[in-house]
Amino acid sequence: MFSDLKSVLHLFLTVLHSRNVFYTLTSGLPNVTEFVAVYVVDGVQIIHYDSNTERAVPKQDWVNNVTEDDPDYWEERTERMIDNHSSFKAIVESGLQRLNSTGGRHVVQGSFGCDWDEETDEVNTFNTFGYEGEDFISLDLKTQTWITLSQQAVVIKEMLDVDKPRLTYFKNYLTHECPDGLKKFLNYGKSSLMRKDLPSVSLLQKTPSSPVTCHATGFYPDRAQMFWKKDEEELHEDVVRGEILPNHDGSFQMSADLNLSGIKDEDWGRYSCVFQLAGVQEDVITTLDKRVILTNWRSVKGERHIKLNFSHFFTFKHLEYKTPSYNQSQKYKHFKEKSENMQIKCLIFFFFFFFFL
């Protein structure tokens, strides 16, 4: 039965790869770079360009492998970025005139790219443009029309819908150039981007009455799932799953809590934590066992057990490349606050532990 469940669950862990491009154009902001472009593959920043330096530069050593096939790549990429800056700026200026907002300070951002399913070869595209930090307009490739995401965008839609050459450019980029470029860079960086790293899994518990946390850290990529099972059946009640979070070294971590209140001591061996990683058929299974739980509470004899690995709590550092995305900047702010709150709680916990126990 569980083998069937395992097969079904692995269907949802398809090996997806992504390529994203983030543009940010500002006006009226002193000491702020006017135009910045960031290229990202599978969550890793690979190329950076800004209007101050007017140079496209690699952000990973392996990205330079592109010159083996195209010796003039960086010169051509730089020229293209200069052209894209001018084109993007012209569109924005025309749009601001239609919005009667030619003066003052403004921020316009673009996020577009594609996902490629390694197993099915299916490609999905996405694009969104933002204005003043809010979603503004996006392109529907099926109808080849622009979709307004803000009331202000109506007049911009009218301008862009009649610009057929630009529609053709976006369609070609998203459906052909983007996936082709994604596969190319995956090949150049396959030792890094296409690796499969299984995690270190630990069982953690604050007190004897607390839930047991199954914590996995150090896995890559971030397409993974974790759940608790009893015998061969996945549990949904009494289980709280955490979100996947990034580690400072580019790997990821996640956790799932199991409420022990309804579990008899003699049944502990029937419960297991299961970790699954996309592209890896073998699961990492950890049986619920009191002997392997890492804890910091006193035993019956009054012995103090200090076994918690501090690294489990202080690895919440977000990657810098995501800040150019207007939506992700809000997620980053929320994530940063959440991480800082977790660190503060942990510090308070250990302070009281050492000084009052």
From TrEMBL:
Residues covered by the Ig-like domain: 199-286
Similarity remark: Belongs to the MHC class I family.
GO term, biological process aspect, one: immune response
Claim: Glycoprotein is one of the keywords in the record: yes
Transmembrane segments: none
An example Gene Ontology CC term for this record: external side of plasma membrane
PANTHER family in the cross-refs: MHC CLASS I ANTIGEN TRANSCRIPT VARIANT 1-RELATED, MHC CLASS I-RELATED
Top-level lineage group: Eukaryota
Keywords: Glycoprotein
Biological source species: Salarias fasciatus
Keyword Glycoprotein among UniProt keywords: yes
Name of this chain's protein: Ig-like domain-containing protein
Listed Pfam families: C1-set (PF07654), MHC_I (PF00129)
